[in-house]
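Here is one chain, start to finish.
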Amino acid sequence: MPSEHQSSPRAGRDGDVLAVVSQSGPTISFFDAVSDRHIDTIDIIAEPHEVCFDPTQRLLWCTTSYHSGYYHANSGRRTELTVIDPDTRRVVEVIDLAPEHGPHGLALDTERRRLYVSVEGSEDRPGGVVVIDTETRRPLGRIDTDAPGPHWFAIDPAGKTGYATNKEAPFVSVVDLERGVLTAKVEVPGSEGLAVSADGAHAYVASPYAGSFLAATEDRPDTGIKVIDARTASVVDTLPTDGVVLPVHLTSTGKLLVGELRMEPDPESQLGRQAPGRLTVFSADTRKRLGELEVGLFPLTITSSPDGRIAYVSCVVSSTVHIVDLETLRELSRLDIAKAGEPGAHGLAYIPRPA
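Its structure:
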């Protein structure tokens, strides 16, 4: 008989579902986690970006950031959060956060029933994080991050400290979630995705800001993952990457997954053209590079199964989701979202079957 280590990575996932956001669909599609069979697709308001599953309330939360476009190239910021029942696959409520706008990053504290949503700044206020009560589905307040574009947000497992990465500001904002105040600014030259270690001792931050990197023709900053010591609020190490990184994800088994954007020469463009992206895997404990795998164009979101065995990488330009066995670093399958007429694969959520 095969050992547990040799068993199929799909084993024991009957009834589990993967939710995939199509940014320009605008839709959320649901797929069987074992067979990859398309189950259903629901329409939501434009333009959805990230999605988060709350197992306590059994609800999906989805941010809608812009009327169209993306950061620095959009037709106006939206103000809504969409709440979805993933079992009946229907929209439960659309919550208007106005005057807050440009909601994007999501971080969930199930123990305290809190959802943290990053929002962009405006002329009369800096960017920040809106705090939502997940039971009443109503805002409780906001925490300023003192930067115009906090785009991603993560919290430590204790629910006491939050980190907001800032695309343009040269620091990562550290906030005290209990007091609701900004406590530190960690010097980082523009930042993207992030994750926090299981013990809360370190944060892993993608840097530099992808937009500034692509726009530069010389003196480009080194790309990689900045390791932040939570106790000193300072960068203590850098995990180098070949390409600029946007998404960062930490699995339950301690593997740090990063999505590298890659370009190749194009005689018609100074910046080049999109090349297949790369999923790069590090050990969060040893900070050693464990391996890599080619994925689609422009990896933008990464998540994993609760047991840390399978990774899911959405690539927005190719509109594909790549399903990867993290023990063998082998691609198990690929979801082609564009074939269903839903381009722009972005946010991902793994939804275990109901108890």
